[in-house]
Write a structure and sequence with these properties.
heterodimer; A: mainly alpha; globular; B: mainly alpha; 5 helices; flat
């Protein structure tokens, strides 16, 4: 365990760069820690002196994604609390919990519930430290959880899902919805559709509709023609079209 | 023209968004209908484009590739157990179905009787303890016993 800690100190610059990557990617709404880990891994491989070692247990290939993964939580939390836009699926679920107890994430939360926001920030920082200590102490025992066979996990997890779905509203319709969503998720996975994106849209849909409705009532259907909205629309168009334009430019440069 | 399974899924999506658009046209207030129309319309247009691309591609390589029969049968059996469990819960309730399901599933997976009985008993007691006693949430008793 201490050898691993020493490796992080030895590769401190990679750790710092990966953490920045993770934070920036975490700030982007809808882009979860999984994406930041892959980006950090790719960056580590590109900047490594021995890229051929990646995929064979090279420690840089572990440090980069893990540093990025941890840092993306901070970015997620910032965007979730300050703007009310969940940065990842986990934050979207947390936002749902906030709304259930009457706390609306966003600028209002920063003004009215600043103590809660700071508590969360300190909590995340403390959680990382405590989690690190727990992992150090119990890593050997905890690793055995990964060896629990699917034969036991599948029926137990399925049972818990069905029971939890039922007790939410006390109706079997929710259990039926679980089954429908299971088939939908299977189809989406098979045909290459993003399930985290759908879950994010499902959770954010209500909020989006509420603020959209307010905007339409306040400024009419063409509310997006206001200067601030236009700037954001242009930024969105640029962000969406940049990967395609870049490919076109690179193709032209090669020709 | 070969229609891929993903195209059928796309057709279902188009059908659903068509229903959303049709339903939103019956809304009394234009402001209420605006968002479903915009989102439904966008998804319908993009889905139609994607369906046209897939149908035009014809015999192009499928997105997921050919799945081996073993994997297909595994998915099929998993779904069968899922539906069977759901049906049994609806008829007999959680507290009867859960231990029977766990016992039968683990025995079907060739686990020993003591292991299957222990896991079934532990899970049932845990669920009863956590939900019925801890959360005071009444679990579904089943169509037969309610």
């Amino acid at each position: 365990i201490l050898v691993g800690a020493r490796d992080v100190v030895h590769h401190w610059w990679l750790w710092a760069r990966s953490a920045v990557i993770g934070y920036v990617v975490g700030v982007l709404p809808g882009v979860g820690p999984g994406t930041s880990s892959w980006i950090a891994y790719g960056h580590a491989k590109q900047t490594s002196r021995h890229p051929e070692r990646f995929g064979t247990g090279c420690v840089e290939g572990v440090i980069a994604p893990e540093a990025s993964n941890g840092a993306s939580t901070a970015g997620d939390l910032l965007v979730t609390m300050a703007f009310g836009v969940p940065g990842s699926l986990g934050m979207a679920v947390m936002m749902g919990g906030f709304i259930l107890v009457g706390v609306n994430p966003g600028p209002v939360m920063m003004a009215k519930n600043l103590d809660l926001a700071l508590t969360l920030l300190l909590g995340v920082a403390l959680a990382n430290i405590i989690a690190g200590l727990i992992c150090l102490a119990g890593s050997r025992s905890l690793a055995k959880i990964a060896f629990i066979h699917l034969d036991f996990l599948y029926p137990i997890v399925l049972t818990i899902i069905f029971v939890a779905a039922f007790v939410t509203a006390g109706t079997m319709l929710d259990v039926a919805m679980v089954i429908i969503m299971a088939f939908l998720g299977l189809a989406m996975d098979r045909f290459g559709y993003s399930r985290p994106a759908m879950a994010l849209g499902f959770i954010m849909g209500g909020l989006f509709e509420y603020y959209f409705f307010r905007s339409v009532l306040t400024s009419g259907p063409l509310f997006f023609l206001t200067p601030i909205c236009m700037v954001m629309v242009v930024m969105m168009i640029v962000l969406f079209s940049y990967p395609y334009l870049r490919r076109v430019w690179q193709g032209r440069a090669r020709n | 023209m070969q229609i891929k399974p993903s195209s059928y899924f796309l057709m279902l999506i188009l059908l659903f968004t068509g229903a959303v658009i049709g339903s939103s046209l019956t809304f009394r207030y234009f402001e209420s209908a605006l968002l479903p129309l915009i989102i439904g319309g966008l998804v319908f247009i993009l889905g139609s484009f994607e369906l046209w691309r897939e149908l035009a591609a014809g015999k192009a390589a499928p997105r997921t590739g050919d799945e081996p029969d073993v994997k297909r049968s595994k998915i099929g059996s998993t779904l069968a157990w899922l539906l069977g469990f759901a049906g049994a819960v609806y008829l007999a309730g959680f507290l009867i179905t859960v231990p029977l399901y766990l016992l039968s599933y683990l025995r079907w997976r060739k686990r020993s009787w003591p292991t299957a009985i222990a896991v079934a008993a532990f899970t049932t007691i845990a669920i009863y303890g956590i939900f019925e006693i801890g959360f005071r949430a009444e679990l579904w008793k089943g169509l037969i016993f309610s």
